[in-house]
Specification:
Chain lengths: 262, 846
């Protein structure tokens, strides 16, 4: 490596240090949450999730996710439409996300032509049988945890997040690594009630899309069972003009064709 | 040659003991690397299909062997569904996964299960069934109602009467179950209250049996030794002389086990029985010697001369009994069951060592003792005839001579009654029943199987022929599986069954509004798939893949049986096969069985049937050896009569008593054969030796009543009483061993002393004959021999046509052949021995 360049980078890094030190844990958590879940006014991506179990068997999910912000860092709406496996094609969800209370969810099953409201007592159940949880897809509210800055390194802030209501979750705390440059959360480690690491989420690839640093590949691993899921996000687009009205029961039965090809 | 051996032992006793001590030390050193294997699954070779398949499906469906923890509350009117009990269950569900060896995240408990239920209009609720404590009375009521309504929990996690619930604790390996169960018991101490806790499950029964078996080994074997020692002391009244055979027997056990461990064989459930088998065999040999020594010493008052005389007289019978016993046990190795092969070979080796030890140690030991120690030892001829025991022996002996017809008629009646009993024998086994009724595992087993669908797991795995078609998402296929479940549920043995069909039906009915009528498999494959994806959006999506593979090409139907009896398993298998035959599946599928309960049935079946065949093989081998040894086909057959009657009687008694023919009973049949023939050999050999002097049967008999009769009965009494302590063991196989030892010794000795003299009185020629080189010259002899050979050939053809030969089989075969050669040689040299002796006797009379 070019020595001069190296020194310049090192010097730049050092000179920014005081600025980083002033960053509070809450602020870092809020920024990371924003980068992961709230960029742009709305967004769309095609997602392929491949679950690999402990025996190396894989199963695939393919879907389109639409997102609409009601309020920055606050309420959001999601629309999830399944393409694969073939026999669940057309299954769709609508989620009205409320950071301060249980989400509202509706599920449409085309084979039964049935819309059901789903009341889930918590958001920590599996997302469509993958190693991602609902909360990983829609985001965990920053207000639910107490954040504490741990000694990080030059590249990352490390936050320890302890739930305020421990009874609601299966972990005792989790750590996240946040990229100091762009506030992308690149890794999370979950520790169980005995303090044992049992679950990780990693960002495998980050791209700049329309000026937004965007995770386009991530992996969730269940260390207990040995299974993991890799999610690929393609065709990511921000501010495409999604409207509030598509997140209703009517659009569950007839997906909005401008965003979702049936 | 044997005289040289004895002479050497008499001359250089210290050398003999020095070598023995050295070898013993070497054997003891081997125990440093002892491996213990208490897994009864190892009764089957590792590459056996059912074992390989069991491992495969355990991996494929993430199934584990479970310890079952039952929580029962009979005091509270709501059973276990009161806030206190539920909080304890919640606490246990949190605490047990922390135990090392438990697969925490696969633990099954109501406290970590998801529930799907109805919310408001058109609403489905997904939530943890129990949530977190504290619970109110209303919570408890709701949990009870929800749990009872969920077919996935009902009868598995909670009982119908709501008085009991179960926590299924998955373990990494079977051999940690005992340790894990101890740890659970430790945790339970802080959860005391109205609840009663029960721990059971096949892996625990198997592992606990292994552990407790070794404890019993340490208690029972020494206790048996002590009792035998005291009895012998009472008979012979000489501590030092009685101590000898006891020490010898222990040494033989150490040498044999050391040899086995040294060769790298683990101590398995079977081989842990070796000491119990060797002990009576060793003691038997030396009691014959001591008995004769005791009675002859008074005549000579010279210990060395007496011992030489006694050994000479008994050398042949002792050698014969050892050779036949060895052949009997070697033949166990023909069976393709690895632990039984090891067991057979090393018991046989032990018998060989015991024989060597007897002819070397006894003279060497006597040589080391001072003559003064024998001052008041032994019986004079007058003393011999006096006494209650002697009068009884003479009385019994004369009775058999006078009323021989009555004795033989009685024998026929006993055989007849026994045969009827044998036809009633039930072949059955169940490792849980290896524990006595009062054992905690047995109690837990009966309590939990009364409340629940069953603690015995069986897996019926279906494979679709078309791997790519996701056959097990097809509604027709799932309905078919559901029909099978319904059929099995109605037949009684299966208390509960769970399959993918149940999951689909449950999810579908809740999506459709929770009505009873919608508890069915939906009509299209897409609908099934969408129900399943909904199920996967729960806290525990992996639960699905205990019942189906992700490619939907393989399905696992989990059956719970209330009993682990082989007969029950066999009945379930038979009925299922019949159903599958009569009701062809809508798609082409194959099926296989798995699960510990099924594996147990397979190995126990193979073992019981294998032992039966082995037993017949041993019988033929011993018969042929007796024919060669006695150089008469007729005498060979006659010598087998008391043993045959004994065996028929014992198994007949089992049949009449309703005791099932299980693994321990199967194994003990080999011992019966090995021990029971000994008495006949002693009887015939001694009778021939005395006859050679006396020349007439009645006079010979009179002499027989005293010394040989006494030795035989003493043996019987010592060993049968010596093994009585086994009756108090909490492990049933030990009781069985005790029962067998008692009846074998008792009946074999009595039948020998009753039947043989009666047969001989009827026709003395059957055992007293001129020994000929070519004894097959006469027609009847030739005919009988050809029958034996034909029987042997037929046996080999039938028993081994389908058997897989392995190294052990070949080694065992070679050993039996070698032993037969020894037989031929011994019987030849003996002819000369007796021929010379006969000449001398004649000279003297002249």
């Amino acid at each position: 490596m070019n020595k001069t360049l190296f020194f310049i980078v090192a010097w730049l890094g050092l000179s920014f240090c005081p600025v980083y030190a002033e960053m509070s844990a809450d602020e870092a958590a809020q920024k990371a949450s924003h980068i992961a879940y709230y960029q742009g006014k709305d967004g769309r991506s095609s997602v392929t999730m491949v679950v690999t179990d402990a025996q190396g068997r894989t199963r695939e999910r393919q879907m389109t996710i639409l997102r609409f912000n009601i309020q920055d860092n606050g309420d959001q709406k999601y629309y999830v439409y399944f393409y694969k496996p073939n026999d669940v094609k057309g299954m769709s969800y609508i989620v009205w996300k409320h950071p301060d209370r249980d989400d509202d969810r509706w599920l449409y099953l085309p084979a039964l032509d049935l819309v059901r409201r789903i009341a889930a007592s918590d958001k920590r159940s599996s997302f469509a049988g993958t190693n991602f949880l609902y909360e990983d897809v829609s985001g965990r509210s920053v207000a639910l945890d107490a954040h504490e800055m741990l000694p990080g390194d030059e590249k990352y802030y490390v936050l320890k997040n302890t739930p305020k209501d421990e009874a609601q979750v299966e972990f005792s705390y989790y750590k996240i690594w946040i990229d100091k440059n762009n506030f992308v959360p690149v890794k999370a480690e979950y520790y169980d009630k005995e303090g044992k690491l049992y679950r990780t989420i990693e960002a495998l690839e980050v791209k700049d899309i329309q000026g937004h640093p965007t995770i386009v590949k991530m992996k969730a691993s269940d260390l207990n069972s040995g299974a993991f899921t890799v999610a690929d996000f393609s065709d990511v687009a921000y501010d495409i003009g999604i409207t509030d009205d598509i997140f209703t029961e009517r659009y569950l039965r007839n997906p909005p064709s401008q965003w979702i090809k049936g | 040659m044997f005289e040289k051996m004895i002479a050497f032992a008499l001359r250089r006793p210290k050398v003999v003991f020095g070598i023995a001590a050295g070898l013993t030390l070497l054997a003891l050193l081997q125990f440093l690397r002892v491996k213990i294997d208490t897994d009864p699954e190892n009764m089957l070779p590792r590459n056996e299909f059912v074992r390989v398949f069991h491992q495969e499906i355990k991996k494929e469906f993430s199934l584990y062997d479970y310890i079952v923890l039952g929580v029962v509350n009979e005091k509270d009117k709501d059973g276990v569904f009161n806030p206190q009990t539920l909080e304890k269950v919640y606490g246990l569900t949190q605490a047990i996964p922390k135990i090392d060896g438990v697969i925490g995240y696969e633990l099954m408990s109501l406290a970590n299960k998801d529930d799907i239920s109805q919310g408001g209009a058109g609403e489905v609720v997904f939530k943890w069934l129990m949530g977190k404590p504290p619970y109110s009375a209303a919570d408890a009521e709701r949990i009870k109602e929800r749990a009872l309504k969920n077919p996935l929990f009902y009868n598995t996690l909670i009982s119908q009467d709501a008085k009991a619930l179960c926590i299924y604790v998955p373990i990494k390996e079977k051999n940690v179950s005992y340790r894990v169960s101890r740890a659970i018991q430790g945790i339970l101490k802080s959860y005391q209250g109205d609840e009663k806790y029960y721990l059971t499950g096949l892996p625990l029964a198997e592992d606990a049996f292994g552990k407790e078996m070794f404890v019993q080994m340490g208690v029972s074997a020494p206790l048996a030794i002590l009792v035998i020692f005291l009895l012998m002391l009472w008979f012979f009244r000489h501590v030092n002389l009685v101590l000898m055979p006891i020490l010898m027997a222990m040494d033989v056990v150490i040498l044999t086990m050391g040899l086995m461990v040294g060769f790298g064989f683990p101590i398995h459930i079977m081989s842990s029985m070796i000491p119990i088998f060797l002990l009576p065999i060793c003691v038997l040999d030396s009691i014959h010697l001591l008995s004769d020594f005791f009675e002859n010493y008074a005549a000579t008052k010279d210990k060395n001369k007496t011992v030489l005389h006694v050994l000479k007289t008994l050398f042949i019978p002792n050698l014969f009994t050892s050779i036949t016993t060895m052949a009997g046990f070697f033949s166990l190795s023909f069976a393709p069951i690895p632990p039984i092969q090891v067991f057979g070979v090393f018991v046989a080796v032990g018998v060989g060592i015991a024989w060597l030890a007897t002819v070397l140690f006894i003279p060497a030991y006597v040589a080391l003792m001072k003559e003064e120690k024998f001052k008041n030892f032994g019986l004079s001829h007058e003393e011999l005839k006096a006494g209650l025991f002697s009068r009884f022996l003479v009385g019994m002996g004369r009775f058999t001579l006078r009323r021989w017809r009555l004795v033989l008629a009685g024998t026929v009646v006993v055989i007849g009654i026994s045969l009827v009993g044998i036809s009633r024998i039930q072949i059955n086994d169940n490792p849980t029943k290896w524990f006595a009724r009062r054992h905690p595992i047995r109690i837990a087993d009966s309590v939990l199987n009364r409340h629940f669908g069953g603690t015995y797991s069986v897996y019926l795995v279906f494979d679709a022929k078309d791997k790519g078609a996701e056959v097990f998402k097809e509604p027709a296929m799932l309905s078919y599986i559901a029909r099978l479940q319904e059929y099995l549920g109605g037949e009684g043995d299966v208390g509960k069954s769970t399959s993918l069909a149940d999951i689909v039906k449950k999810v579908y009915s809740e999506l459709m509004g929770g009505e009873e009528a919608s508890y069915v498999v939906p009509k299209t494959k897409e609908a099934v798939a969408q129900c399943l994806l909904s199920f996967e959006s729960s806290h525990k999506p992996d639960d699905l893949f205990h019942f189906v593979t992700p490619d939907y090409a393989r399905l696992n139907l989990w059956l719970q049986l209330r009993s682990g009896d082989n007969q029950v398993m066999a009945r379930v298998e038979r009925k299922t096969e019949a159903f599958l035959r009569d009701n062809p599946a809508p798609f082409e599928v194959t099926h296989n069985w798995s699960g510990l309960t099924y594996i147990n049935m397979v190995w126990q079946d193979r073992m019981v049937v294998g032992m039966l065949w082995n037993f017949m093989g041993s019988f033929i081998i011993v018969l042929i050896m007796m024919i060669i040894l006695l150089r008469s086909v007729v005498a060979g057959f006659v010598s087998m009569i008391p043993m045959t009657v004994t065996i028929l009687f014992i198994y007949g008694a089992l049949g009449w008593a309703g005791k099932e023919y299980d693994m321990p009973v199967a194994v003990l049949s080999a011992l019966t054969l090995g021990l029971a023939i000994d008495f006949a050999i002693h009887f015939i050999e001694r009778a021939k030796a005395i006859y050679a002097v006396q020349g007439r049967w009645p006079q010979t008999a009179e002499e027989m009543f005293l010394t040989p009769y006494r030795a035989i009965l003493r043996n019987a009494i010592v060993v049968s009483i010596g093994f009585l302590p086994l009756f108090v063991s909490p492990l049933v196989p030990y009781n069985t061993v005790g029962f067998f030892m008692f009846t074998i010794m008792f009946f074999a000795s009595i039948s020998t002393l009753l039947i043989l003299p009666a047969v001989v009185t009827a026709h003395p020629g059957v055992i007293f004959y001129e020994a000929k080189k070519n004894f097959l010259g006469s027609c009847p002899q030739c005919l009988l021999m050809s029958l034996v050979v034909a029987g042997a050939v037929a046996y080999v053809l039938v028993a081994y046509s389908g058997a897989r030969w392995n190294t052990a089989t070949l080694v065992a075969l070679a050993c039996v052949a070698a032993l037969s050669m020894v037989c031929v040689l011994v019987s030849r040299s003996r002819q000369c021995f007796f021929a010379k002796k006969g000449v001398k006797e004649k000279e003297r009379t002249i």
